[in-house]
Design goal:
The chain contains 16 helices and two strands. By secondary structure, it is an all-alpha fold. Strands 1-2 form a two-stranded antiparallel ribbon. The termini are far apart.
Amino acid sequence: MSNAFLENNLLLPFLTSLLASFGFSIPCALLAQKLGIVDIPNSAPHKKHSRPTPLAGGFLIVCSFILSALLFRAWLTTEILAIFSAAFVIFIFGLWDDIRRLFALQKLLGQILAATILIVFGVQVHFVANFAAEGYFLPSSAEFLNLFITYFWLIGITNAFNMIDSMDGIVAGLGAIASAFFMIATYLAGQSTLAFWSAILLGVNIALYFWNGIKSRFFLGDSGAQTIGFLLASMAIMYNPLDRNPTSSWIVPIMLLSAPIFDTTLVVISRIRKKQPIGNGRRDHTYHRLIALGLSQKYAVLVLHTSAFLVSCLAFITLQLSPSFALTFFLIASLAGFLALLWLSSKQTLDE
């Protein structure tokens, strides 16, 4: 099948990954169970599920992408291969953590290694150079800031998706929403290869949502949640809209991934204020606070997904604005998010 056809038809890669993911779901769950990669109820204060559950999300993602890569080899550019190689590192360290809890430093080293792989192959942030050209930074500091932001973004988003994974379906749903919007945004930007693989990631996330969010057949685990976060963070770096000012187009990826960013910021600020370890699992995430406010589990997840969808729609509005108006719009949205964060942080958690 010609690339010209696939450039204008994202249905085939989407359906391929969707069907492949559904096909791999049960075997991956059985594999995780056979290997003993299972989440035990009450093994930590925030683990309130009723039965031992396999951590199969990472296996499903890797299997689905390997099959897609074999079927669509013509769409494997150097940058895409770099993303997959780095994501596989994230998967391995996440799987290691699922099997025998790693120290925070060990996980961080794996994430740094994965980010370095991307940077070596040229997948990194470049927009700071545009600010330097306009006199906001010294040109000599632009490259250092580009590297710093790249590491911070990749590691931050990877951990944000892992931290927000506090209830069945949250991460898969957020991943599906972000993937769908990235697919549309990159298609409109003329980045057909990135749109192609975003469609594949969308299919994977929908299957994950069905088995994790609706059927509760398995959990994503660190290997699944972190891999989704890393893939989306990497795609965000590669996103480069045509005919848009690069000094404001960086706003779009941040808004598309605002839900895990918001949740991580809420948790970090809350735990620092209460002098609690940041890395410990607790029931103080956005989802848990919505439950404490009286929402059911179903509606708490729905609020998170709806909020992510609406903010993603707002992100597309910024593409139609001039850089100054786009930045103003972003600052107003950020202020609203910060006020919501302060309000939620003042509410009780399920641990209190």
